[in-house]
Amino acid sequence: MLAQILAVTWMNLRSLPLRLGSSSVVVVGIAGVVAVLVTLLAMAGGFSAALERGGSPERALVQRAGANSEMSSTLNPEDVRILSTMPEVAAYSPELYVVADVPKRSNRQPANLVIRGVRSDAFAVRPEIEIVAGRALAPGKRELIAGRGAAAEFLGIDLGAKVDLRNNDWTVVGLFTAEGSAYESELWADLPVAQSAFRRGATVQSVRVRLTSADALEAFAARVEDDRRLELEALGEEEFYAGQSKSMDALIRGFGYTVAVIMAFGAFFAALNTMFTAVSARTVEIATLRALGFGGGAVLASVMAEATGLALLGGALGGAVAYFGFNGFTVSTLNNASFSQVAFDFAVTPELLILGLLWALGLGLVGGLLPAAQAARLPIVTALRGE
Amino acid sequence: MALVRCQDLQKSFVKGRETVEVLDGINLEIQQGDFLALMGPSGSGKTTLLNLIGGLDHPSAGAVEVGGVPLNEMSARQLAKWRAENIGFVFQFYNLLPVLSAQRNVELPLLLTPLSSRQRKANAATALKIVGLEDRAKHKPGELSGGQQQRVAIARAIVADPTLLVCDEPTGDLDRETADEILSLLEVLNQEHGKTIIMVTHDPKAAERAAQVLRMDKGRLAQEAA
Ligand SMILES: Nc1ncnc2c1ncn2[C@@H]1O[C@H](COP(=O)(O)OP(=O)(O)OP(=O)(O)O)[C@@H](O)[C@H]1O
Ligand SMILES: [Mg+2]
Questions:
Q1: Same domain assignment for residues A152 and A37
Q2: Predicted complex ipTM exceeds 0.90
Q3: Is residue A222 in some structural domain?
Q4: B68 at interface of A, judged by CB pairs closer than 8 A
Q5: Cα A379 to chain center, whole Å?
Q6: Which of A242, A323, A340, B33 would you label with A248, given CA atoms 20 to 30 Å apart?
């Protein structure tokens, strides 16, 4: 049986060059579906990853209870002091969080850029931050360090450049990375300087806490909630970022699947049409093989093999387009949850490529099934008459 | 014992609302080693009878037995296997696969046998030699003349060493001279290789080469001496 299938399949493949036109329609159609699907999912994945990468299981974010973003939260110095005495806290970093309009490099249109006021504690809480050019912030100076993504996306955010924020001149003294997390889309400044420049008095927007261990999160959150002096809530950082990325992630994914499904319909009909044409062009050949004693199963399998072969070729092509065209492609978009621009890389992962191939395989199988069944059920005698 | 035995064989086709009676009670015995020509007007049912004897189709009624095997009682799957082992088909338009070389075309029926790839190649080469085309093994059908293509088809028909060759107008598409060559080849296969041959033809000259001629008309047989 296998020898039969292989022989008939091989024969089909040999005749492929005669049907190059219609076959390439299938390949290109399915390549399009897979390229779009993989690229959009890579975008969604990259966006979520950029946000979630900032999250550590050992860290918590404390903000005003009910605040739906860091921006709409306020903590006063007494809040910070009480938090600092809690036993689960290993290190803590009170942070100012404001948003400024800065033009983007791409279209020179102003977009939101996050400015985070920090003390040196911010680096103790986030050991992944690394100054990759220039130097760290000097206390008491109107200086900025810029995340890699912010520098790439925003006009004038260059090492050594002067930046005008709310009518004050700031100097960019360093560039930092944060393992690709959302912090890379921010500007950081010295906390007291930022508090006075943005007229925040002694208040901050949030406190970042490094816990004694990941297991301490629950106890810490409970302690913050139960403390009657505080109207604050503590969230695990991972949970916080997952929540932020959820809506955008769902939006991109939903869009990706919708477009892919619409295109898949087109590719499905192309595959169907191509395989029906292939079968009817070879009606007499198939009938001859059947007369010689080849089974209907072998004919069925060979048509399916051709359809899935073309589909997988398309899938591989689409995956290659997504990978070589978009993997690591950096874009930025507004993170609705934090009102800030987030720069992120498209992440064309092996999982996505496999998903793309599975889609291609599925399209090939369903597109090939009817034509294959028709080929296998051809009545030999009528088909031999060439009718 | 007769190799082929048809008893009150009937075949009708349903075309729309009409039922067309194509074979109307065929009784026929063909002896092992016979070379039989089947003649008759177009539409008289020659191809239909050949298809039943070759196990390509089921009769509507009656029995057809080849080598003691009752074909009318077999499933399509059993028939396919039986055809591969017992029947060689030769068609008017050769029905070779255009993408395969002559050698590969001849090898096709052997893919249904347990023979090794080397054995298949060797047997196909032998069959091509019998039809006199050993030097054309690598050629595709499109690179061969009509007569050469029919020789390749005959090599394909005999490669698995079947007892019965079923030929539907094997010279119908060939000129006189080429037709004569093909008929001589069939004679050789009949006389030297012991193949039993049933050949449908419209050509009286071709029928003369057969040992026996049967005439069909309107789905019935009228026997006469060769
Ligand atoms: N599969 C089929 N479905 C419907 N009608 C058929 C079928 N096969 C044959 N017939 C009809 O049966 C009749 C006999 O056909 P058949 O092919 O056996 O004739 P034939 O003697 O071989 O003719 P020719 O010399 O033209 O080849 C014809 O009227 C044909 O239309
Ligand atoms: Mg006929």
A1: no
A2: yes
A3: no
A4: no
A5: 52
A6: A323
For residue B226, name the pLDDT band (cuts at 50, 70, 90).
very low
Mutate to test the pocket of ligand 1, among B42, B48, B53, B169 (most ligand atoms within 8 A of CB): B48
At A320-352, the pLDDT tens digits run 999 998 887 776 666 655 555 566 778 888 999
Would you place residue A356 in the very low, low, confident or very high pLDDT band (cuts 50, 70, 90)? very high
Q: Is residue A239 part of a domain?
A: no
Domain B33-58+75-225: give its CATH superfamily: P-loop containing nucleotide triphosphate hydrolases (3.40.50.300)
- Residue A47's domain comprises 2-52+244-384
Q: Where are the domains of chain B?
A: 33-58+75-225
Asked if the Cβ–Cβ distance from B112 to A289 is below 8 Å, we say no
* A26-30, A46-50, A245-249, B67-71: range with highest mean pLDDT: B67-71
- Nearest Cβ partner for B97 among A285, A296, A380: A285
| Residues A36, A70 share a domain | no
What is the predicted pLDDT for the residue at A336? Answer: 57
In a domain, A228, yes or no: no
Residues A172 and A134 in one domain: yes
What tokens does B135 get? 């030097």
Locate B119 and state its tokens.
């054995």
Ligand 2 centroid distance, CA of A48 (Å): 70
Q: List the residue whose alpha carbon is closest to atom 26 of ligand 1.
A: B42
- Kindly state whether residue A227 falls inside one of the protein's structural domains: no
Min Cα distance B71 → chain A (Å) is 14
Can you give the pTM of this predicted structure? 0.70
Residues A135, A166: one domain?
Answer: yes
- Name the helix (H) or strand (E) containing A301: helix A296-326
How far is the C-alpha of A176 from the C-alpha of A190, rounded, in Å? Answer: 15
Residues B101, B137: Cα–Cα separation, whole Å: 7
Indicate whether B222 pLDDT > 90. Answer: no
Minimum Cα–Cα distance from A380: chain B residue: B56
Count of domains observed in chain A: 2
Contacts by A76-85, CB closer than 8 A, 24 or more apart: A76/A202, A76/A203, A77/A202, A77/A203, A78/A229, A79/A207, A79/A230, A79/A232, A80/A204, A80/A207, A82/A227, A82/A229, A82/A230, A83/A207, A83/A209, A83/A224, A83/A230, A83/A232
Residue B124, CA distances (Å) to A1, A8, B68, B108, B119 in order: 20, 18, 28, 9, 8
In angstroms, what is the span from residue B56 Cα to ligand 2's centroid? 14
Q: Please write the tens of the pLDDT for every residue from A74-93.
A: 999 999 999 999 999 999 99
